[in-house]
Amino acid sequence: MSVTMCRRFSASIVKKQVVAFTGLFFCLFLVGHLVGNLLILVSPEAFNKYAHALVSNPAIYAIEAVMTILFLTHVVLALKLTRENRKARGESYHLKRNTGRGATFMSDTMPYTGILIFVFLVLHILKLKYGTYYEVTYDGLVIRDLFKTMVEYFRNPLNVAFYIAAMLVVGIHVSHGLWSAFQTFGFNHPRYNGFLRKFSIIFAMVVAAGFMVLPIFCYLQGAN
Amino acid sequence: MSDIGLMNLKLKIWRQKNMTTKGKMVDYKLDGVSPDSSFLEMIDQLNEELVTKGEDPVAFDHDCREGICGMCSLMINGMAHGPESETTTCQLHMRKYKDGDTIVIEPWRARPMPVQKDLVVDRTAFDDIMVAGGFVDINVGSAPDANGLPIGKGNAELSMDAASCIGCAACVAACPNASAMLFVSAKVSQFALLPQGEVEKDQRVLNMVTKMDELGFGNCTNAAECEASCPKGIDISNIARMNREYLAASIKAH
């Protein structure tokens, strides 16, 4: 790779496009993750079998590795861009206000919501994926009873509150991020801009609300 | 003349002797400001008082004072060119303020645009970006006959909209990241949308963006504060155009 090529692909715009691409990937992942997990509403068996199908797939390690790489790329590049942005201002303003016609709470807090999501994700994987291991037998097949792990974890209302708060943060991050990714790739058209911005917010709200159902449902199951 | 309606103001202004010394906010009281005066005339009035007292007047950029030159550049109460949309500082009038108001006045803040003195910043960085590609370098002949060169109405208008940028750098000042994307994308767009500029559009976008990054401007986070602060109402669809043209050009180049 030539030096010019290196420089070209380390340009601000390309870095942003990589963040946008990985971000869009995780928006799709959220949909898949949500739809799969909502099987918990069908029956514990459907949920456990779905979870088993995922982890028993031989491609799971490759998929997890790719997702980890995409996630770390998103985080590392976003942090690098944020650092550059801080540096670009130099001396800060004595007083700086938003016009009210541009930046929003969502766009202003992207680095912070991003960091919170990172922290959440580490805890999320540790507490559930690597949480207490129970077994259950369906038709003679012994598989993990992830449903039981979930119900136990969400018996604690603090955990429920933590998950709901985390999903709010995800919603805030995605509502700016999704629209922003399209703009970063150069998709901007007066006919679709309004739709796209509304779609981003609705998508974020639906995904966040959908995920909030899970801890609440598990809590209610545990209370019974 | 009756002094009814004249205002007494408290001003907090950034004072900095030169590029090497550290500056600070200094408080001033200014009495008898007419609501009909422009914002710059208000500072003129303050400066007259300062000069009379033998003090150093506040240095600030200004030229045409009719909203077209792009020289005036003040951060007023935290907003570039003040609170009104599509208005330069010189076109902002004191009738927007009330008697007893406190007004905070600062220079643009961006590392590539250092403060020279008080409220004056060095905007050479924009010239450097223009030198990197903001021109048409092929022989396009003399001025064509009207309608001799068929250009769609849509593109002609978009190009003219982009070309209305006056290079004041309010976009950089208002951007939470001190990014110059709105300025650069307006310049990239104004050329790329017309046949004369289209020929070199790939090289142009690569060179101008590379220069912009080199100078140390921040990265766009699509907050759109630039669009909201632009005195000429330049749209962030220009930034989208530059994003896709940069991507296409960097793929084509290899």
Essential attributes:
heterodimer; A: mainly alpha; 3 helical TM bundles of succinate and fumarate reductases; 9 helices; 4% strand; globular; B: 254 residues; Ubiquitin-like (UB roll); Fumarate Reductase Iron-sulfur Protein, Chain B, domain 2; 2 domains; five-stranded mixed beta sheet; two-stranded antiparallel ribbon
Shape of chain B: elongated
H/E element order of chain A: HHHHHHEEHHH
Largest interface comes to: A-B, 47 and 55 residues
Oligomeric state of the chains present here: heterodimer
Sheet with most strands of chain B: 5 strands, mixed
**End-to-end CA span of chain A:** 62 Å
N-to-C SSE string of chain B, H for helix and E for strand: EEHEEEEEHHHHHHHH
Second-tier CATH architecture of chain A:
Up-down Bundle
Assign the CATH class of chain A: Mainly Alpha
Strand order of the largest sheet of chain B: 2-1-5-3-4
Kindly state the mean pLDDT of chain B as a whole number?
96
> What percentage of amino acids of chain B are in beta strands?
5-15%
Mean pLDDT of chain A: 95
Briefly note the CATH topology name of the largest domain in chain B. Fumarate Reductase Iron-sulfur Protein, Chain B, domain 2
Count of individual beta strands of chain A: 2
In short:
The complex is a heterodimer of chains A (224) and B (254). With 224 residues, chain A is mainly alpha-helical. Chain A has helices at residues 3-9, 12-37, 44-56, 60-89, 105-108, 110-129, 146-153, 157-184, 190-223; strands at 135-138, 141-144.
